[in-house]
Amino acid sequence: MSISKVEDALSHEGTALIQRHGERLFPWVKPYYSDPLVLKEGKGVWVLDESGREYLDFFAGIVTTSVGHCHPHVVRRTWEQMKRLGHTSALYVTEQQVEVAETLTELAPGALNRTAFTNSGTEANETAIMAARIATGRSEIVALRHAYSGRSTLATGLTAHAPWKPLPTAVPGIVHARSPYPYRSPLGDEASEKEQTDFFVSDLVEVIETTTSGKPAALILEPIQGVGGFIVPPRGYLRRAAEVIRSYGGLLIVDEVQTGFGRTGHHWFGCEHSDVEPDIMVMAKGIANGFPVGATMATDEVAEAWTSLSISTFGGNPVSMAAAGATLEVMIEEQVPARAAERGEQLRRGLQELEGRYAWIGEARGMGLMQALEIVSPDDSRAPDPVRARALLEAALREGLLIGLGGLKGHVIRLGSSLLVTEEEVREAVVRLSRACESVA
Ligand SMILES: Cc1ncc(COP(=O)(O)O)c(C=O)c1O
Q1: Which residues pair with 165 in a beta bridge?
Q2: pLDDT of 13
Q3: Of 1, 80, 200, 415, which is least packed with CB atoms within 10 Å of its CB?
Q4: Nearest atom (ligand 1) to Cα of 285
Q5: Does the beta carbon of 258 sit less than 6 angstroms from any atom of ligand 1?
Q6: Does ligand 1 lie within 6 Å of residue 122's CB atom?
Q7: Quick check: 393 and 441 in contact, CB under 8 A?
Q8: What percentage of residues in the chain have a pLDDT greater than 90?
Q9: Which of 224, 253, 258 to mutate to test the pocket of ligand 1 (most atoms within 8 A of CB)?
Q10: Predicted structure pTM score
Q11: Per-residue model confidence as pLDDT tens digits over 162-218
Q12: How is 289-308 classified by DSSP, letter by letter?
């Protein structure tokens, strides 16, 4: 068969698969792109589609393949574990689970000595909220607008993002304070970072005093709001927010599902940039390079308050734990916080150049390898422009670059590659993104 005939046959196969996907999966299992991408293989920061075309993956399965696709050490350890013992349930002790819990305590800030393993960020947040309610004997939870916490009934209640809330908040006692979102702050660009912090902190206080009993169980927040569009709070906000919730007797839950494990550069966790020690910390995504692992860490005091029965059949599964253990080993060996800081700065310089070139890029922002472009109307209105953002997503695909969308209106471009991305790969991603921008300008 000629090469063009082989390509035709493969593309026909791909189209048929997309059709079968549409027929058999729930409609919300919705792939990106007008012509969905069928992926077959991955290695490092690169993935291959069914026709053999290569793409630079700068979204990493939603900031998850932290050490790159099919990292050999992760593959080897999980494969070996799979052959030896694939499942135990939480009724038995395994070395793999204990070792990962010990490593997490070494890496985490403060005194987070205890871990409960589950299978996703959603479940890890569920566990965190339940732990906070049990430990405090209180029920009200303060979350932030623009937050994303997962897809369960409770997690969609914590989420403050209409497109991701299929039902109204069904769990009582959840209130939302303003998102510390400087680009969209009513104070405008003239306000200093301190003024912005004061404004958002005073809103948090007001929400606690006017919409709760004054006795909240916890405040839950992401150090950088991920799905919200990589919203970086003004410096000082996290620290002051922690002081506020504690002054009302509540606990601080930090959701590090996206920001954890060096993603934000320099530190292992996003909250460490603000010198904040949470009472409860939530992790998932990058912890096991794509294997389904959620982890909720807590202080001894919080964990020990939970004396009733609870179980996760798959939580702490030896294969998932082998994947997490191997991923953590690679991350420690490669010193990913420092690498993410360096490569993140390089990426950011590229994004800033694009921001200077196009009036429709409202802001380039982020920390480490968590960088975003907010796409807006080119006049001064800052109106979100999801149409151009989506066009840019598609144009990037044509250039062989995978990126992500986020933001309330789906108008923020998100970039979050493997933390082991090289200088050359970042340079190449910026070149491809720049060509994509040109084509939608
Ligand atoms: C900050 C944050 N928390 C929780 C979740 C939910 O994680 P999962 O999709 O693994 O349930 C996500 C997912 O995007 C997230 O970004």
Answers
A1: none
A2: 80
A3: 1
A4: 10
A5: yes
A6: yes
A7: no
A8: 96
A9: 258
A10: 0.97
A11: 999 999 988 999 999 999 999 999 999 999 999 999 999 999 999 999 999 999 999
A12: TTS--EEEEE-HHHHHH--S
Q: Which of 290, 392, 318, 301 is nearest to 60 (CA)?
A: 290
Give the pLDDT mean for 13-21. Answer: 92
- Bridge partner list, 414: 372, 404
For 412, what's the count of Cα atoms within 13 Å in the CB-facing half-sphere?
24
CA–chain centroid gap for 180, Å, is 17
72-333: CATH, from 3.90.940.20, 3.40.47.10, 3.40.640.10, 3.40.50.720: 3.40.640.10
Domain boundary assignment for the chain? 45-67+335-440, 72-333
Tens of pLDDT, residues 90-129: 999 999 999 999 999 999 999 999 999 999 999 999 999 9
Q: How far apart are the first and last CA of the chain?
A: 40
Q: Is the CB of 149 under 6 A from ligand 1?
A: yes
Q: Are 252 and 218 in contact (CB under 8 A)?
A: yes
**CB 197 less than 6 A from any atom of ligand 1:** no
